[in-house]
Amino acid sequence: MSSRRTAAVAGSLVMASFSAVLILSGTAGAEDEGPASGKGGKAVDAAPAGVKLTTTLPGKISVDNDSEKTAITATVKNEGSKDSGKIRLLVVGFDGLVVKGVEGCSAIPEKGLPEGSNSGFACPIDNLAAGKSKSYAVDATFDLGKTGKICLPVQTSDGKKTFWQQGPVPFGTSNPSPDAPATPLLLGTDNEPAGPGGKELPKTGPARDLLPLGAAGASLLAAGVAGMWWSQRRRPRAQEG
User: Fold this and answer.
1) Distance of CA 126 to the CA centre of its chain
2) CA 93, 228, 98 angle in degrees (round to 5)?
3) Which one of 119, 173, 202, 227 counts the least CB within 10 Å of its CB?
4) Separation between Cα atoms, residue 221 and residue 197, nearest integer Å
């Protein structure tokens, strides 16, 4: 009896250890994106009284080295004391980051994309109550041979005002791992691709100011106008009218 009891206890311990491994593995998977961050965000036009709109992006994403696919969670929040009314969130890709789809949102026609961007989706929100948030699952690809940026403007439903804009903010790594199944990228980090091409990327610092205006959004950051590009594109038209 004692040997059976010992075997039963040992079996229970093995099962308990196996369950613990499963729980820990599940937790690690759930934390792949890391804490959400508003890095690169800035208020632009004044929001209605009592409304405070912001956005967050994951601090970390993972890009499949074979398919170049990645998933990103984009979240818009109303940290104010009053409801937002009708607004819209845009999810826009730059450089090597291409937005392929955003759940519940519509693709922005090519002629309507912000200058320098390659893709974008518009997400209409009828109302965001005070203290509430809404998250969107973003499917994207990331060319690990390039830099890549994403931008989240929060606007009036007609796009005439931009209350908040996060980005264009980069995802990237300074330690590429081409032989691994996936490459982790951090928010706010310029990507340094593996191989000879990495040496040809624009470096951080004053040298960036020498990039041509068409360098896919990099000049926006170099000029210090991140958070202003969307509204500036439309202001000249308003003056002409």
Assistant:
1) 22
2) 0
3) 202
4) 22
Q: Reduced to 3 states, what is the DSSP secondary structure of residue 207?
A: helix
Determine if the pTM surpasses 0.85: no
Q: Are 128 and 84 in contact (CB under 8 A)?
A: yes
pLDDT tens digit sequence for 163-191 = 999 999 999 998 887 789 999 999 999 99
For residues 137 and 135, what is the distance between their CA atoms, to the nearest angstrom? Answer: 7
Mean pLDDT of 17-41: 54
Q: What whole-number distance in Å separates Cα of residue 175 and Cα of residue 177?
A: 7
Contacts of residue 226, defined as CB under 8 A and 6 or more positions apart, other chains included, come to 40, 42, 165, 167, 168, 169, 220
DSSP designation for 202:
P
Query: What residue type is assigned to position 45 of the chain?
Result: D
From start to end of 157-237, where are the E strands?
A: 162-172, 182-187
What's the distance, CA 59 to chain centroid?
Answer: 9
**Segments in the chain forming alpha helices (H):** 2-30, 218-222, 229-240
For β-strands 87-95 and 117-125, DSSP reports them as: antiparallel
